[in-house]
Amino acid sequence: MELQGVSHRFVDLPGVRLHVAEAGSGEAVVLLHGFPQQWWEWRDVIPALAQHYRVICPDLRGFGESSAPATGYDRESLLADLIGLLDALELDRVHLLTHDWSGILGTLLCLRHPERVRDHLMLAIPPLGAKPDAAMFGRMMRHGWFNLVLPWPGLGPWALRRTGLAKTMLRDHSVGMPDDLVELFASQFQDPARAVAGSALYRQFIQREGMRLMRGEYPAAQLTTPTRVLIGAEDRVVRADANSHEIPGASHFIVDDRPDAVVEHAREFFN
Description:
Blueprint: E1 7-13, E2 16-23, E3 28-32, H1 46-49, E4 54-58, H2 75-88, E5 94-99, H3 101-112, E6 117-123, H4 134-143, H5 155-162, H6 165-172, H7 179-187, H8 192-214, E7 227-232, E8 245-247, H9 254-257, H10 259-270
Parallel strand pairs: 3-4, 3-5, 5-6, 6-7, 7-8
Antiparallel strand pairs: 1-2, 2-4
């Protein structure tokens, strides 16, 4: 996958080798992808942001061209990856743009190391302090049933490799994502190590930390980093509230559905 103006490098960290796509110059903006995607999620956002910023898009542990070790998918390891990457790239303080599960990881970074993040634009995750209700849990069970499948050792990797589960997630939670992109994002799980990594991420981080977030165990009062949340108007699970911005014409995969809206909010918020 090539994008004009984008260069690539690999950063070796303890236990993992991360692939990083970069473009532009200026203040650094770090873009963290969601599941089941990788850095190419940001293909329609990078050129616009690179006009004003140094844009940095890593493939997180287990995804894209980064290595997929058997371990390291818990919050402490993933946070260490992120801090290690910032240190390796000599980035003292960054703007942060995250989607899906990486929004929780970004929030952890803001809570633990607020001095490293200027501001955080978070996509498709409820804002810190939101109070999920029974209706949201009902929508999650109806439309996010894969959360009950993916965490299981054996079953989760099998579902990713053999049943096209990743394709179902991409199609059902986007507004008409083209088939070629669905195939591209889902194809990485044909690698057995990445299928195992995807399941481990769900088991050790996404499901566990998502429940902590919804139970209010993340200390919202301690969050000092300016944070903005975007929620797709057609998201099947999460609904926008007074503390978030609703994006028309978008579902969960906001970056693919409405990259123009993501760029507009990023430019305004980061300034």
